[in-house]
Amino acid sequence: MAHLSRRGAMKKLAAFTAAGAFCDLRSRGGSNGEARTAMTVTVRLNDTIGTIKPTIYSHFAEHIGGVIYDGIWVGPQSKVDNIDGIRRRLIEHVRRLGRVVVRWPGGCFADKYHWRDGIGPRDKRPRRFGRWKEVTEPNQFGTHEFMHFCRLCGVEPYFAANVGTGSAEEFQQWVEYCNAPAGTTSLAEERGKNGDEKPFAVRYWGVGNESWGCGGKFTPEDYCREYRKFTEWVPGYGVPLYLIAAGPDGNNTEWTQRFFKKWTDFARAPLRGWAPHYYCGTTGHALKFNDDQWYEMLAKANRMERLIVDQWAALGEFDREHKVKLVIDEWGCWHPPGTEINREHLFEQMGCLRDALAAALTLDIFNRHADKVDMANIAQLVNNLHSLFLADGDRFVATPTFYIYEMYKPHHGAKAVKIDVQAPEATFRAGGQEYKLFRVAGSASVREKALTLTLVHTHVREPAEISVRLCDGKADRVQQTVLTHDKLNAHNTFEEPNVVTPKTIEGKANGETIRCVLPPASVVRLDVWLG
Ligand code: AHR
């Protein structure tokens, strides 16, 4: 838990950044013994991967624990500052994340949710039991409230439909209720009476969730049959629907192959997105971990890359033109209980610097596979698992992971370009064996004359001196934004909300080469003005 030698390294780094040149940070040998090696990141400005869809930076909000009730919805009469019942500070912060997507109402909850329970006057809505664990769902937050939340935050909705206990007809009617033009059908009229005459124009629809598990315990073949039934006749009412099928638990390629074999046996049902889920955990405790557990957690997060490559290859066997893209609509770090701020908030955990690095390295993976990944939703937005925010009554705080999402915003909509990293690996031990993890990884994107390079540096103790070489371009000016802390488990609390926040300094550019120092355990963004 103690990382005393990091403090000295951090002080020296500050000296460097003030002087604007490499400081003499001689390695005393890493904690895990790597030799000092020149580290280089080569950015191939003309080697484009694809456009980074802002939807890669999306979110997930489920009726579970404290996500909706307390996290998002406090009710119009609440003493907590709100806009029409929705927590104001959350709205203000989500607005800062850009035009991304929020998936709702689940998760496992989706396959038990009947959308009609959540419309009409709030005092008349049914209360239901046991939708996610044995708790009462008051249905105060339904379709209209969620849409209002999306409009206030400037995000797009993604609805997950109930396959497990619902019907194809119920799904089709929900689409009609949301999308049919005003006055054209009885459901459109009902929507108008409930306060929203104008259609919601919902594009993203997930057909079930984790169909191998809480979503119905289907075989891939049976789920494919259901999927076909649900999507066989579903008009968009002028909205181009983006239909998403529930993918496997982690990187299970057999599940993918069996679903798609059936999908190609049948006439291919409309399908745009394939949604595997991947949670990395559970390593030790959210805040109490040693150096090896730091690396182990990050190595688990890094498995996302293998998942993307393998799932993409499996899709390609059946969909040679790759019309179906990956939608990783649940991912994140999942720690054992023990750091909840409110015992009622199921799966709430305190997110620290380690979670921020896990988020950053995962976002870099998505950027590097911008041609394959259409959307990704970290789980979950507030008060649950790898959250960006924690809220309890009138208290609210942004976690270090929120700041990663802000730092990575310049990547939204930019062209991902290839990078090559030359750096030694970090080594760690887990379960009596030695493993390796990258020491430096990242991603780069270009928009007109602006290059954004984000780098994750995993080493717990040593800084990394990096030469960034630009192929086919020159740097006029550089700024460096850094998120780090001298404690690996540093986190933001209600009392001390700014413990882990990014800092920006002017960098040093020399035409084709940029020199920078990555502090130990850090995420760094370089903003480069290209000449
Ligand atoms: O995010 C929490 C739960 O994890 C979701 O409800 C489910 O889809 C997943 O297993």
Question: What are the salient characteristics of this protein?
Answer:
531 residues, TIM Barrel, binds alpha-L-arabinofuranose, eight-stranded parallel barrel, single chain, ten-stranded mixed β-sheet, Immunoglobulin-like, 2 domains, alpha/beta, disordered N terminus, 24% helix
Which helices and strands occur, and which strands form pairs?
Elements lengths: L3 H16 L19 E13 L6 E3 L21 E2 L2 E2 H8 L5 E4 L23 E2 L6 E2 L5 H11 L2 E6 L6 H12 L6 H8 L10 E4 L12 H12 L10 E8 L3 H13 L7 E9 L9 H11 L2 H15 L6 E10 L18 H16 L4 E7 L9 E4 L2 E4 L1 H8 L7 E8 L2 E6 L2 E6 L1 E8 L2 E8 L6 E8 L3 E9 L19 E4 L1 E3 L2 E6 L3 E9 L1
Helix pairs in contact: 4-5, 4-6, 6-7, 7-9, 8-10, 10-11
This protein binds alpha-L-arabinofuranose (AHR).
Short description, anyone?
This protein is an alpha/beta fold and 531 residues long. The protein has helices spanning 4-19, 88-95, 143-153, 168-179, 186-193, 220-231, 253-265, 291-301, 304-318, 353-368, 400-407, and strands at residues 39-51, 58-60, 82-83, 86-87, 101-104, 128-129, 136-137, 156-161, 204-207, 242-249, 273-281, 325-334, 373-379, 389-392, 395-398, 415-422, 425-430, 433-438, 440-447, 450-457, 464-471, 475-483, 503-506, 508-510, 513-518, 522-530. The chain is 24% helix and 29% strand.
